[in-house]
Design goal:
Radius of gyration: 15 Å
Low-confidence stretches: none
Bound molecules: coenzyme A
Shape: globular
Structural class: alpha+beta
CATH topology: Aminopeptidase
Order of helices and strands: EHHHEEEHEH
């Protein structure tokens, strides 16, 4: 499979959002909330997750990269720039389930790091849930060092 990493364009929006809905099951806070509390805010976890990603697609489209194979978008990475601190944030990274485990996520992460460097950032950060084994293998091997763990709480009001 020949995979190209390229800049996001507006025509990729539906594909990116569809990958987001298909790939974050069990590995994002939105899904964890729904598992324990049912639908939150009247929307499914997929719709809430997609909304967050869509915000980056609309507002920070030049900092989004996609992976393409045979003319099809099969993965994406959204980055954000914290310019004053010179820190780039790898905010969302996902590969469509049928294409996972074939090196695409690693390629996207490498491209995201290069992109952040080219945009003048001195550091990069990324977070994942403790039991996301794939991400926790990928990030250290992509050059990231674990610096802290955080615990997320949630309650009904
Ligand atoms: C995490 C994700 C982006 C990785 O992309 P991928 O294309 O599947 O991963 P790659 O094939 O590039 O593998 C990169 C590394 O991840 C780890 N990895 C991949 N699949 C794995 C698995 N099934 N179990 C454990 N580690 C795995 C390995 O360290 C691998 O490196 P190696 O092949 O040199 O050992 C992808 O699996 C995904 O979209 N997952 C769901 C969404 C998600 O969890 N995103 C990150 C949230 S923070």
């Amino acid at each position: 499979m020949e995979v190209t990493i390229r800049k996001y364009s507006r025509q990729d929006r539906d594909a990116v959002l569809s990958i987001a809905g298909a790939s974050f099951e069990g590995v994002c806070l939105e899904h964890r909330m729904e598992q324990d509390f049912g639908r939150v805010g009247g929307a499914s976890w997929q719709d809430r997750k997609k909304k967050g990603i869509d915000y980056d697609l609309q507002r920070r489209s030049r900092d989004v990269l996609v992976a393409e194979a045979d003319g099809e978008v099969i993965g994406f990475v959204c980055t954000r720039l914290y310019r004053k601190r010179s820190i780039g944030h790898v905010a969302n990274l996902a590969v469509a389930p049928p294409y996972q485990g074939q090196g695409v996520g690693r390629r996207l992460m490498g491209a995201a790091v290069r992109h952040l460097r080219e945009r003048g950032m001195d550091y990069a950060r990324v977070e994942t849930l403790e039991d996301n084994e794939r991400a926790r293998n990928l990030y250290p091997s992509a050059g990231f060092k674990e610096i802290a763990r955080r615990v997320y709480y949630f309650r009904e009001l």
